[in-house]
Amino acid sequence: MKRKILAALLASTMVLSLAGCGSGSSDSSTAAPAEDGAAAAEEEAAPAEDTGDAAAEETAASGDQTLTVWCWDPAFNMNAMYEAEKVYQQDHPDFALNVVETPWEDVQTKVTTAAASGDLSTLPDILLMQDNAFQKNVISYPDAFLDLTSSGVDFSQFAAGKTAYSVVDGKNYGVPFDNGAVIGCYRTDVLEQAGLTVDDFTDITWDQYIENGKKVLDATGKPLISMQAGECDLIMMMLQSAGSSLFNEDGTANIVNNDTLKVVMETYKALKDSGVLVEVNSWDEYVGSFVSGDVAGTINGCWIMASIQTAEDQAGNWAITNMPSLVGVDGATNYSNNGGSSWAVTANCQNTELAYDFLASTFAGSAELYDNILSSGALATWAPAGDSDAYGVGNDFFGGDAVSAKIVDFSTKVPSNITGVYYYEARDAVATAITNYINGSDIATELQTAEDTVNFNMGQ
Amino acid sequence: MSKPSKKMTLNKKHNITGWLFLAPGALLILFMSFVPMGRALVLSFKTGVGAAMKSCGLMNYTRMFQDTVFVQSIKNTFFYLIIQVPIMLIFALILASILNNRQLRFKGLFRTMIFLPCATSLVAYAVIFRSLFANNGIVNWVLVNLGILDQPYSFLTNVWSARIVIIIALLWRWTGYNMVFYLAGLQNIEYSVYEAAKIDGASAIQSFFKITVPLLKPTILLTAIMSTNGTLQLFDESVNLTDGGPANASITMSHYIYNVSFKYVPNFGYAAAMSFLILILVAILAFLQMKVGDKRD
User: Fold this and answer.
1) A280/B245 CB distance under 8 A
2) How far apart are the C-alpha atoms of A283 and A291, rounded to whole Å?
3) What mean pLDDT value characterizes chain A?
4) Chain B partners within 8 Å of A284 (Cβ)
5) Contact A435 B154 (CB under 8 A)
6) Which chain B residues are within 8 Å of A285, Cβ to Cβ?
7) How far apart are CA B241 and CA A248, in angstroms?
């Protein structure tokens, strides 16, 4: 008897756990942070949308004022969406957003899976897409995204270099969101111990950077910068700072004959060999290296400010300036871009009118929104927002400097580049090349291998 | 209990009961495993970017041998296989025979402790190993404080140390799992056999090689095939522990297949073809192991 009860219990747990697995995916799409009462209505609407039948479409078109959005950072882009919801609700009280926290890797996997299977019903109405992945996704799955060119969004008001990421065949597929202008961040108190100020790092070259870095290393034992090994963020930033790309205009790989890339690789190796740059293994370790004070600065897209500002004990000891420029390269500047993302509307959106109007009147039409999200480091690429007074206000964490205005200024000077469809392939190939080069391999051989790898990947 | 139906013989009734029990599982496996496998096979003969796929014959299969990264990933995977699987199985066997000793106290405690790693999530343990072997991780901290190293050694950015860290992680995670199979196998060996050997003057080592190993052969074969299969499909450790680095030195086949499907411009046809290569490799290796290991007929 005992055994029978046990068996029944076991069987029921298994059935329950199976059911749990099955509903897991649909849960995640509806169980979003229910911030307000309107989310309750959404919970009913979402499963209906999932089935994609005509009845659901009708209700969506007639009265449902809810949009589902995927984005990934609660402190940053999700916060921006909640603020946008508030702004839009001022004129549209029935409007509600269902913002689902979805890490970028998951967004990419889900988009690929949905588009490859031809069943788009699992996609949200709006999703945030990394600029570097935009071309790849739109060209691979043109049916999964809506052409926004005539959606009512005025794209001319965005920085041209930024919109270019989401333009395919002359059509706009994305509403630009955040700015990825590169900033050099330094611990002023550490620099002081080496007799340096942040001015010694403004408008400098990488040679001067290494020289200064050695002084800091001698005086304090701290490297100036840390980078994630095997990721070539810094390489890509250096390349773009001289207006160079891994691809030519016609889409062919530009690696072997790319003289700028050679200089970049040599500079990176010099940085590593001098001890001014230290490589770490993961993103957490990277952020930890400067938050803990082991490393005296970093260079990255301006969104890194959000991570820096988590180190509250270092408030007032940070300063921001531009990045060093490459030596001996035509067109070398102190400005570059890393990261950044844009909003895309998927073909699964049933209420396109609402989605277009929402984007046009918030991210492409509300200076108020951009003022509200400025504190989180979400700097506008929408030109009218940059005129706002909020951008001139000093930030105490960075010694009272008006960092927002500074970064907007940097972003206007960034040379544009070509991401290309095969961006991630090229990036990984170059990362392999640089790792081998640092470990003593020959630069020409490694670049040749990298180009061969990219060409191989392009020859489907 | 209801009365047995008169129309069916007992045998028939048993058969039908058996089929009824089998049917739900078999149907689920058919639709959720075999049908997708068939579709993947069809897919592996197609090529194209994203949704626009066209037939390409065997191109994907010939293409993968010109793919330097994929060839590298095959080498890496076989390196893990050749080094890690034998070490792990030997460890598991030794641990199992120690724990099988009736004189040993706290047996349950030891058994639980050795098996416990299997209860951890693959991602969680990979991430923990990553931080253990980080520049400021505990392994470097101990080595530096003991004076063995002058400064932290970057385990995960050097080719051989990265591979070795993966092997250590795999050993930690899977040895206990295999040990449980051996412990189960050992239950079927009469303890009196060991006692008889002891009376005859056999040492512990002799009885291990003359009794335990030969009698456990079917179990050893089973674990060898399962470990081979598991290692060829290694994914989580490569992704979370080393991210395939440095310079693809530790990337596994499954990790590369994932990259081709989801990180790069999606090429599902090629990815499916590479998956089938893994299937073929597993089949060949399992066949070889059965030929070598199973001498029953």
Assistant:
1) no
2) 12
3) 82
4) 131
5) no
6) 131, 134-136
7) 35
Cα separation values, A53 from A58, A335, A345, Å: 9, 50, 20
Residue ranges covered by each domain of chain A: 31-179+340-387, 182-338+402-458
Q: Is the pLDDT of residue B119 over 70?
A: yes
Token pair recorded at residue A27: 């849960």
Instruction: Please give the torsion angle defined by the CA atoms of residues B66, B69, B72 and B76, in that order, rounded to the nearest 10 degrees.
Output: -140
The interface pTM score, or ipTM, of the predicted complex is 0.77
The answer to whether B243 contacts A424, with C-beta atoms less than 8 Å apart, is no
Q: How far apart are CA A431 and CA A451, in angstroms?
A: 12
Q: For A182-338+402-458, CATH number? A: 3.40.190.10
Nearest residue to A30 (alpha-carbon basis) of A99, A76, A77: A99
Domains in chain B, CATH or no CATH each: 63-293 (1.10.3720.10)
Q: Does A114 touch chain B (CB under 8 A)?
A: no
Q: Which residues contact B166 (CB under 8 A, 6 or more apart)?
A: B80, B237, B238, B241, B242, B250
Superfamily for the A31-179+340-387 domain: Periplasmic binding protein-like II (3.40.190.10)
Query: Any CB–CB contact under 8 A between B136 and chain A?
Result: yes
Q: Do domains A31-179+340-387 and A182-338+402-458 have the same CATH topology?
A: yes
Alpha carbon separation from A421 to A167, A457, B75, B123 (Å, rounded): 12, 11, 29, 30
pLDDT at A70 over 90: yes
pLDDT digits (tens, 9 = 90+) for A234-283: 999 999 999 888 888 888 888 888 889 999 999 999 999 998 998 888 88
A120: Cβ–Cβ under 8 A, 6 or more apart, which residues? A114, A143, A144, A346, A347, A348
Record the pTM: 0.79
Q: Give the closest of B50, B69, B270 to A141, CB-based.
A: B50
> Which residue from B minimizes the CA distance to A114?
B51
Q: Residue count of chain B, please give it.
A: 297
* Tens of pLDDT, residues A317-357: 899 999 999 988 888 899 998 888 899 999 998 888 899 99
pLDDT by residue (tens digit) across B280-296? 998 998 888 888 876 65
Confidence band of A152 (pLDDT split at 50, 70, 90): confident
d(CA A328, CA B180): 64
Per residue in A405-426, pLDDT tens? 888 888 888 887 888 888 888 9
Q: Are B233 and B278 in contact (CB under 8 A)?
A: yes
Structure tokens at A174: 């994305």
Structure token digits, residue A195: 């007799």
